[in-house]
Each structure stands twice: as C-alpha cells, then as structure tokens.
Amino acid sequence: RPSAQTSASHKRPLVVAHRGASAYAPENTFAAIDKAADMGFRWVENDVQRTKDGELVIMHDDTLKRTTDVEERYPDRAPWKVADFTAKEIATLDAGSWFGPEYAGQRVPTLKQYMNRVSRNHQSLVFEFKKPELYPGIEAQGLAVLRKTGWLDRHHVKNKLVIQSFSADSVKTVHKLRPDIKTGFLGTPAVADLPEYAKFSDQINSTHTSISGEYVAAIHALKGPHRKRLEIFTWTVNNAAGAQRVAGFGVDGIITNTPDVVRKAVSGR
Ligand code: G3P
Ligand code: CA
C-alpha cells in the first residue's frame, strides 16, 4: 500500500485544512470548514483580525477586497481594510460569490460564530492571529472569546487547539497569558536560534519551500515549553509530491488547501 514514510520512526503527519478546505469552498467561511468536516478532516486552520468597532472576525487579508463584495458595496471606501469597517457592515458582505455562485451568501464569520461552528463540527483548530501588530491587545481579546465558547477547558486545550502567529511577540503574549495552550511560531528561524523560540512555542511552522530533513531533525531535537518534543507543521502543500517530500522529512503536520490530496499521498486512502 502506498506510503510516504521513509522511516519507520516517522508518524504520519496530521493533515490540517488551510482556511478550511479552501481549494473547494471559499476560505475562512462556514462552507470551508463544513466542507473539511464532510471530507473527514478534524483539523482546520483560520485567520483572526479585528473590525473598526472591536469585533474579532475570520479573514486572511487585512483588506476585505479579495474575498468579499466590499468593493461593489462600498466603492468609496478603498482600500477596504478590515479595521475600517464595523462588524455590522462586514456581516452583510458576501464572502462566497467570488469563489463560485453556489457560495453566494456565505458570510465573514465572527470569531464567536466560527468557534461555535467548529464545535458543532467536532473539529480542532490551528488558530492564527493575523497581523497582530495592527490590533493591540488582540491576544487577550481572542482568548476571552475562546474561553466564552468553551475552548479553554482542559479537554480543548489539551487536544484541540494550537495558537500560532508570524509575530513572535504575539506568540509570547499568548504563552504568557495562558501557558497551558499549545503555540506555534510561523517562520523558519535559523537552527542556532531555535532554542530561543522553543521557550515559548511548541511548534515551528515553516513554509514547505524553506525546510529540509536536517531542519526538521533540528526541531525534533529540542523540547518546547511543555517539555515535549518541539514540532513542525509545514504549509501550504497542495500536491502529492510535495506532501510525500515533507512527510519524508518527518514533519508533524501538513497545512493544505487540498486535504484530500495530501491525505491520499501520505496514507494512501
Ligand atoms: O497556517 C499557515 C499559513 O496559514 C500561514 O500563511 O498567509 O496562509 O496565513 P497564511
Ligand atoms: Ca493562516
């Protein structure tokens, strides 16, 4: 049976649906996480930002232009930053038509709505604070929403949640506020710097183009803040050859827009 594993010591990587199953449904919408759930994927990834009036919403870009009809609806409000629109305004945008007419009417979820949907779907989450430098205090605010939606109890923290960011400061803040939460730093620090990151980050989550078997081994040689082996989830791998390559390095997770393709490549099913 096909297997990407090059060493018996490599566990199959966890497959994480990037922004939901975003090759098949509009990213960061209910449709995208529902699609991942329908395809049998327990783990999804998202991006969290803040509106003008302080609501946390699920959006990758720091403008609403690419993934909603904001330009059409508000032609005079370029560059359509998330931070320049109220939650009420954003709630009426169409976040699905750009992807396909069958997704018309998909909305930009608030973080609260999104967490409830992930719960409903019995899914787990790699949660990303996107551009946290634009949103002072977003870490404490995000954690408060997670607490209110039941995501900071022992079971969720232990089994179902990773919080990551490209901002080391943001990851440090999360680790300081809630040391029990598993964290990830997005980037590829020099090997010599990895021990510093391992003080506050359980994962080093690097783009697949920047890693090698040696780099993965250097990560695995260290322990994270919870005294467990430091991990690596790599992104964004959207084809079988790429998935087999990084699985061969022994990565712990693969973040992908095409989770079905990756699953087949690494496990043959
Ligand atoms: O989860 C990793 C990945 O999402 C980081 O890049 O730009 O897609 O948020 P980006
Ligand atoms: Ca992301």
From TrEMBL:
UniProt keywords, alphabetically: Signal
Q: Does the keyword Signal apply?
A: yes
Q: Does the record carry Glycoprotein as a key word?
A: no
Which PROSITE patterns does this entry report, sorted A to Z?
Answer: GP_PDE, PIPLC_X_DOMAIN
Question: Which residue intervals define the domain GP-PDE in the entry?
Answer: 13-266
InterPro entries on file? GP_PDE_dom, PLC-like_Pdiesterase_TIM-brl
Top-level taxon of the source organism: Bacteria
* Identification of the protein by name: Glycerophosphodiester phosphodiesterase
Species per Swiss-Prot/TrEMBL record: Streptomyces longisporoflavus
